[in-house]
Amino acid sequence: MKKRYALTYFLDADYKAMEDWLNRKADRGWELERLRLGLLAVFVPRIHPEVTYAVDLAPIRRDEEEEEAYRQLCADAGWELVGKAGAKRVYRSVPGRDTIPLQTDLDLEEKQFRACITRPELSGAMRTTLLVVFLTWLSVWSNSGAIYWFELALEPMVLAVLALIALELLWHLSMVFYAWRYSRRICRAEERGEPFPRPRLGRARLRGYVELTGLVMIVCLAVLYVPFSFSDSTRFRAPVDQAEELGVITAADLGYRNASDDTLWLEGGDILKSASLIQSTGPSGVLYSERFDSRWPWLARQVFRELRDQESRDSTRKIFCGNGESTALPVSVSGAEEAVLLQCERGQYLILRQGNTVLRLMGNLDFTEEAVLATIEENMQKS
Question: What's the CATH fold of domain 235-382?
């Protein structure tokens, strides 16, 4: 027998639109044989002279005894169950029998709509909100030092996950509003004695495919994110010889010697990337040099602002410059749009920004020396 397959994904809130869609298919000569996974409808050429479909709602967690009792009630009214999809139950008229509408009380159907649609959507929005709050708290709790939100831009996969969570929250909130508004339409129809309001088929299918696309994206992102979370794919080593090409200031630039085992660490991607290294400048000297390159100037300004405002809690600063309060020193670097120089317990901390680039240098060096400033200015001009 010839069969036809159709991808069907209607939200539970649009169950009446699904009913209209199935009845249109029946009018065109196609009869629903079954639903696969609630997504794929299998149609066969209509073999009964008259076929009508009704879609009703049932709580997803309804026990089997209640389900069987309701199914028998529907059978007595001339309907047989064809398939399930979420809270939706698809019934087909039994050939040769007169059918009785499954729902005739709008007030009862409005209550069922709230129980099966409005409350679950509100619950989903609350769960997503709690997830966002928990992830934010976990990030703050796990990092007792400075919290640099710009570092999220160094890991595009994490940004994608957070963006998807935000979109999921917005979607749930929009569906809560839609369910509430539709519930109000049911109430108004009952008050005016009008027929049950039915959503437009085109819009209902669009809402369904938007949610389906979101679910597919979540699954794909989860598959990609799991191996990513156990790897260091955004952070890798490079020889210090690449420092000049990347615009990172080295000990050699300041008149010292680069060691053969010095390592340059690269991290990030197209949105924001960083290059950093730690070098010895003598028996008791050390230099920490880091460069951030962002795609947009506003992101570079954010990097500079966070580094400046949280310098007293920065763990790297504490290692190379010591604990305690810092004192601001006057500094002027040609080409730098923003510059901050801080005198710490046993070293200095310098942050510069020019356009999309941020440099930060720290260690027991004097960054106010003319030769050092000249080297930094030359590097800023290159960038």
Answer: Protein Transport Mog1p; Chain A (3.40.1000)
